[in-house]
Amino acid sequence: MSRILVTGANGFVGRVVCRELVRGGHEVIGLVRRAGSCVDGVQEWVHDSKDFSGLGADWPQGLSVDGVVHTAARVHVMRDAALDPLAEFRATNVDGSQRVAEAAYRHGARRMVFVSSIKAVAETDAGQPLREDDPTSPQDAYGRSKLEAEQALASFGARTGLDIVIVRPPLVYGPDVRANFLSLMTAIARGVPLPFGSIGARRSIVYVGNLAQALAQCATDPRAARGCFHVADRDAPTVAELARSIGRHLRKPTRLVPMPTSWLRAAGWLMGRTESVDRLVGDLRVDTSRIQTVLGWQPPYSTDEGLAATAEWYSSTH
What we know:
Layout: E1 3-7, H1 12-23, E2 27-32, E3 42-46, H2 55-58, E4 67-70, H3 85-106, E5 111-115, H4 141-160, E6 163-168, E7 171-173, H5 179-189, E8 205-207, H6 208-220, E9 228-230, H7 239-250, H8 261-270, H9 274-281, H10 289-295, H11 303-317
Parallel strand pairs: 1-2, 1-4, 2-3, 4-5, 5-6, 6-9, 7-8
Helix pairs in contact: 1-6, 3-4, 5-7, 7-11, 8-9
Protein name: SDR family oxidoreductase
């Protein structure tokens, strides 16, 4: 049994990671910014300073940990209202991650699993599913901050011996999902016509239960040492296929309009959302062969099972 610190333990991904680790018999400390929000079986530690400032000084006396799963982050949003988005992303995702690594290392941690993003590599796959050793070319502030965090943590690990493991998921969905996936579900539930009928691009996604299982294994499996792993569901559906599957599980008709890609690009240009449309109509497939080969990992849930669980949650809460 290991003692694992999970940052962002009350978040969308963090809560499921905590459940997975507790189920595996590990002692879990949940690092959160507000009290009373951890799942059962997790020892809660509240540290409410922004970007983990002062974490080392606030570290509970006598607490040592074997490892860290760092899920806390400033997450990607399509329309960021920050005056300097890159500076904000760096403050949390780069500087904050370094503070967690430094404090955990001083208190016994031998491994840190960093939840990065496929956006640290690219926004589209250029004809082949993205591999861990592909050249990196992040296209937005979020992706750049995640890549910079990977590099900073790798440098820290090389200096100190802390074992840094990088995990890069694509879009994550599941119960309690927010942002664009939730907006898509709401549109389908309300019968809003969607202009996705002609989009043939395939996009890898990952169910939060699959991601949590991979993160828990990366935190405890000796074979994961100093690894970088891409994690995704087996399926890479088109946007139209994804929308139809959501509609089926919500028991709502999916109204897809077969709008030509050229029209979507023109609309994106007129609305100042060219990058959003480019991402929507381009393939972004993820190669997961490394984690399968090195760790023997396979996603325990199918995409259909993940979407069914997500739709059940949505129907019961909206």
